[in-house]
Amino acid sequence: MKPFFRIRLVxxxxxxxxxxxxxxxxxxxxxxxLSFRFMPAFQRHLVFLPYLRWPxxxxxGDPSSEGLSGARNLYLETDSDVKVxxxxxxxxxxxxxxxxxxxxxxxxxxxxxxxxxxxxxxRAGSHRIELYKILQSLNxxxxxxxxxxxxxxxxxYMSEDGAVTDATAVYDYIKKHSKDSMVVVWxxxxxxxxxxxxxxxxxxxxxxxxxxxxxxxxxxxxxxxRNHPLSYIFRPxxxxxxxxxxxxxxxNLAFDSDKHIxxxxxxxxxxxxxDDAVIPIILAKKLxxxxxxxxxxxxxxxxxxxxxxxxxxxxxxxxxxxELPSIIHEYIDSGLDGRKSGSQLxx
Length: 347
Prior knowledge:
This protein has 347 residues and is of the alpha/beta class. The chain has eleven helices and nine strands. Strands 1-2-4-3-5-6-7-8-9 form a nine-stranded mixed β-sheet, with helices on both faces.
């Protein structure tokens, strides 16, 4: 090939490469920020991720197909034209026991855990099932649900209000049948935002749960977006907050757990792994400090337990900590009235 043609080929290649880079920059720094700012539906789908339907092929009507024994599927109406899919997993000691109705088992005296999952997948997620089995082995009921827009629940408009409405309705169903059984609300990831606001409202209404557990929580969704790995490439944008965090408040996606926790007057347990890259532990520590500083003196304790990064639990696998069953057993089954707030590192 003659030098002249080589030069032309190199120039064309450089021009093509620059065009591709320019298109990528245009999409990343113009199209994506503008879409996020002015398209509430885009915001909702990025916050809730309902389209990540893993695992696939789940038969929600048959929880035993996912390896769960003593479990049943039901649907609860939570709002006008909205039903959510729910699994009720019996405590190990009640599997095979005879009750006149399935709901009667909820009043048998075993603690009941209402589990509110994070923003992807469904109640059939593998790490969630691992946790259900631990709770079941501790002789707790597990009530786990999919918010509207997820799995086999009604496909409809998603918002913070909607998720909280769903969680509150399922809580009301539990309280209707639980008699004097202890009720614990457990939220993970985005579910901690749902749990915090739900429990705050229950406390305001003088019907709080007995315990609240926040696993891998954030303090508010604005700080979470600022610290999320996917936001790294957008942080150089001068108007980052105008594009990405301010619209969330206006569009019912604020998840201000740090504001809600100040009004929660039941015992609180926070669990977080040091190597969580999705929700950095610094956000959980901010939430913990807010709880310590904003709740009145004499209110029930706030416990913070962090797991060393060497364990590799990251965002989803605290359920694999050998210490977790004893931590949960002590927190739920032991009296906390005289215990002080405090933090602990598991190494």
